[in-house]
Amino acid sequence: MARIERYQAPRSLEEAAEILRAGNVTVLAGGTDLMPQTQSGKVEFQPVLMNVRHVPELQGIAEADGVVRIGALATITELLESALVRERLNLLWQACDHFASDQIRNAATVGGNLCNASPAGDTLVPLLALEARAVLAAKPNGTLATRRVPLAEFFVGPGRTCRASTELLAAVEVPRPPPGFAGEFYKHGTRPGLDISAISIAAGARRDGSVLRDVRIAFGAVAPTPIRARRAEAVLEGSECNEKNLEAASRAAVEDVRPISDVRASDWYRRELIHNMLNRVLNHVCRL
Predict the structure, then answer these.
(1) From CA 255, how far away is CA 230, in angstroms rounded?
(2) CB 215, CB 233: distance < 8 Å
(3) Which of 22, 95, 141, 266 shows the greatest Cβ crowding within 10 Å of its Cβ?
């Protein structure tokens, strides 16, 4: 295991960004992904370990101007207990209810889950469907600056994001879904909450009479990154909510995915799950 030469605990975003600017930093928040990965040898500590738990700008859940801002340090438990998340971002709230154990939820942060960038990450799929964006902070020229990246562009591969080593994920911004938008999250695994998903689905839309609008479908664990099911969305957008169209969308979704075979499921089984379970989820959405 690499040796840690210095421990830093910044008290502001400005201070944290300055430490990152110097380079060779490992960022620690909840540690629920980082610690097992360093112990297994998958990740090596950098010479500087920076604990960001005391940075106030990374905390809180609030809504302003039609956008819900979730600080990167918000824990899964905080998301579950937030009336704002449950009311405005119900897809995300549902996913948190399937996230690991109570002990892990109390420590794990939404920022850590996003930066870990597992294709099966539980919060990634609903946030992708909700068209969230990552807020990244850095001091490239000595002055604190932020940039916003849609989550569809944030994930670039298994365990990889577009975040530079000198950047810190400060928050996730989620535009408030349109009025009447309803959705459902589904996760398939050996155990509902304590297992890594074989697949996950977040699907939502709003009803305009019998027609579906603002259709959003996202999948996890079926490609190198969480993905939007663009073919399936196109089938349903502006279409009647009926059995024929839901089945057509479910078939189209199989063309959206690129699953692998691993210890949790085979390529074939994941495709079957996507087809069958998306159909079920969409039927539920049509009744919400």
Answers:
(1) 10
(2) yes
(3) 95
Residue whose entry in the numeric block shows the structure tokens 């078939």: 251
CB atoms closer than 10 angstroms to residue 188 = 20
Q: 201, 50, 172: which is closest to 114 by C-alpha?
A: 172
Q: How far is CA 149 from the centre of its chain?
A: 13
- Give the helix/strand (H/E) hosting 172: strand 168-175
Give, for 8, the enclosing helix (H) or strand (E). strand 6-8
Q: Is residue 74 classed as helix, strand or coil in its secondary structure?
A: coil
Read off the tokens for 93. 């709230």
Report the largest interatomic distance among the alpha carbons of the chain, rounded to a whole angstrom. 62
Q: Which of 212, 219, 215, 228 is nearest to 274 (CA)?
A: 219
Quick one: DSSP state of residue 176? P
User: Which residue type sits at 115?
Assistant: C
What is 75-144 written as a DSSP string?
Answer: BHHHHHH-HHHHHH-HHHHHHHTTSS-HHHHHH-BHHHHHHHT-TT-TTHHHHHHTT-EEEEEE-TTSS-
The alpha carbons of the chain give a radius of gyration, in whole angstroms, of 19
Helix axes 267-287, 243-256, angle to 10 degrees: 140
Asked if 204 and 183 touch (Cβ cutoff 8 Å), the reply is yes
pLDDT bin (cut points 50, 70, 90) of residue 3 is: confident
For residues 288 and 24, what is the distance between their CA atoms, to the nearest angstrom? 49
Q: What is the mean pLDDT of the chain?
A: 96
pLDDT digits (tens, 9 = 90+) for 206-246: 999 999 999 999 999 999 999 999 999 999 999 999 999 99
Angle at 213 between CA 176 and CA 85, to 5 degrees: 25
Burial of residue 120 (CB within 10 Å: 0-12, 13-18, 19+) is buried
Spatial CA neighbour of 275 closest among 241, 231, 214, 216: 231
95, amino acid identity: A
